[in-house]
Amino acid sequence: MQTTTIPPEMDLVYRRPDTLTQTPMHYCPGCGHGVTHKILMEVVDELGIQEQTVGVAPVGCSVFAYNYMNVDMQEAAHGRASAVATGIKRILPDRFVFSYQGDGDLAAIGTGETIHTVNRGENILVVFINNAIYGMTGGQMAPTTLLGMVTSTTPFGRESQVMGFPLKITDLVAQLPGAYYVTRQAVHSPTAVRKAKKAFRHALEYQKLNKGTCFIEIVSNCPAGWKMTPVEANEWMEKNMFPAYPLGDLKVPK
Amino acid sequence: MALRLRTGNQMIAQGAIQAGCRFFAGYPITPATGIFKTMIDELPGEGGVALSAPDEISAVAYCIGASMRGVKAMTATSGPGWALMTESVQYAVMTETPLVIALVQRLGPSTGGATQGAQGDVLLAEFAVSGGYTLPILSPSTAQECFDLTILAFTWSELLRTPVVLLSDKEVGMTAERVDDDLLRNVTSQDRLQWRNRSGGLEFMKPKTYGTYSFDCVQEIPAFTPVGGEMKVTATGSAHNKQGKLQKNSPETLEVLKHLEEKIRWRENDLVKVDADIQNGAKILVMSYGITSRAAKDAVAESRKRGIRVSFLGIQSLFPVPSRTITESLQGVGRVVVAEENLPGLYRSVIERHCNGARVLGVNKIGSLITPNDILNAVQS
Ligand SMILES: Cc1ncc(C[n+]2csc(CCOP(=O)(O)OP(=O)(O)O)c2C)c(N)n1
Ligand code: SF4
């Protein structure tokens, strides 16, 4: 990738932080993973904690997070990210540790790990990308899939009698005493991005206090899995996902 | 002829449905998702249940529950999912619960290569059971064989009351090829041998007394009684007596454990499915299985064109090892070539001891398919 030097008479309004690599992202156009990576890494950069940050990526579309996030990154087995993060944090309690997981990873195969990580109040940040579908494996139903939503494994839409209800795992973990800060955000508009970024900043700052788990859900999209254009996907998300998964704080420190 | 383009995964699903499978549970994983998807689309229309599970641990357990009621059940996965399933697969062995698991291999270890083929799980599958109990394994190499061997897998699983693994791989599972619909008709499917309607007969005698696992001699297969039926059923993954009750080290419990293996061993010469092409006077025998046996067949044809006398044995029933068939194919053979897509020669390590001192040579590779040329070189060397 080419870099250009900015002439001295121009103001620098934005630069790629060192916490993001120059690798072009493999995500589909319009996918929320890319923006989420970006703001998380911007916060790590702004807090000056790049050298002290360790991330654990999932199995899912963000397996390649280590290619983009310029911090120590491990990819755990499917569903085990917060468990691996627990091991790292227990040995390196002074580091900033986060897991980054999709809804299949965090709320299906990794449900046990998720609940027990928060229940123990592990001093880590759990980033949860809820796009209501399994992106990587080709658009199957996820636990968070909305009622009536068509996926490759719910060809007639998700029916609650057969496949249960969308799992609001963020509401669930917010009930646990180990949770210190729980919030639900989005990254589809400049306003949303600003708010989400603020949430990441809070979460990483709180980690220094050793008070418990910070859990950030990003209600996101999957244009490829939803079979929509990026614009359609964001509109559909606002109309359908936000009512089911309302944005805002679920638990804030007293 | 009625030709259609179908993938191996689709043919496993179709085979299962024609074999009478009416319960499927799965969790998405490349390269096995095609089976899951086809079952989701097709099974409800056949009056069956197809369920999405939150992980492979649940998927296989749902199937075991359904099978305990007498419904034929199947799940499908790849290496990482198989690793999670093995606890319940052992439970199915211990509780003598029929079940078919399609294991569509991809490159390992761990997440490995989701879209890369491999034949690296053959021993991982077979030796998943503590104590070394035989898990019958069938391995198809074409879409048509996917269909045929799925039917056979259900038959064995029902007859033997044990889980059976269908060991496919990414190339066989995801490649679409011609299948003749006319060859898919007239399928006979094996029904569960129930306590109530079981007649006498040499192989399946009715034991004198009822118990969940009653048998009079260790080789006998206990008649099945469904949960929720007339008879009381007790099942446990712990070591148990013939009533299915936990018991430690009693002579009856040890007899039940011995029976779990003996019921299969005793029938091993009936549990043979191979693709044999034996040439008179051949000094060389080429053996393979799964996708690689297609390259092996080509290599054998080419060798013969070049005047080399060579026999071929494609092994579809990998376990129990068809030792008698292998020994018979070795008449006059001085050199055996075993081709498979893994580095150590996993299946070769198992069959070597049945090769009566013939020189055994491996053709092994990962990362790409073994070609007919790779095998030809070994034949000519
Ligand atoms: C044990 C195991 N089972 C299944 C898979 C296949 N697999 C890979 S990614 C994935 C789900 C991804 O969905 P999600 O977590 O929602 O993340 P997204 O891709 O949507 O970001 C699955 C099931 C696997 N790698 N390991
Ligand atoms: S498949 Fe969906 S989640 Fe994955 S990169 Fe594409 S849009 Fe994003």
Give the helices and strands, then pairings.
The complex is a heterodimer of chains A (254) and B (381).
Chain A: H1 32-46, E1 53-57, H2 65-68, E2 72-75, H3 81-91, E3 96-102, H4 103-109, H5 111-119, E4 125-130, E5 133-134, E6 140-141, H6 160-163, H7 169-174, E7 179-186, H8 190-207, E8 213-219, H9 223-226, H10 230-244, E9 248-251
Parallel strand pairs in A: 1-2, 1-3, 3-4, 4-8, 7-8
Antiparallel strand pairs in A: 5-6, 7-9
Chain B: E1 3-7, H1 8-18, E2 23-26, H2 33-42, E3 49-52, H3 56-68, E4 73-77, H4 79-94, E5 99-105, H5 122-126, E6 137-138, H6 143-160, E7 163-169, H7 170-174, E8 176-180, H8 251-265, E9 274-277, E10 284-288, H9 292-305, E11 310-315, E12 317-319, H10 323-329, E13 335-340, H11 346-351, E14 359-364, H12 372-380
Parallel strand pairs in B: 2-3, 2-4, 4-5, 5-7, 6-7, 10-11, 10-13, 13-14
Antiparallel strand pairs in B: 1-8, 6-12, 9-11
Bound molecules: thiamine diphosphate and iron/sulfur cluster (SF4).
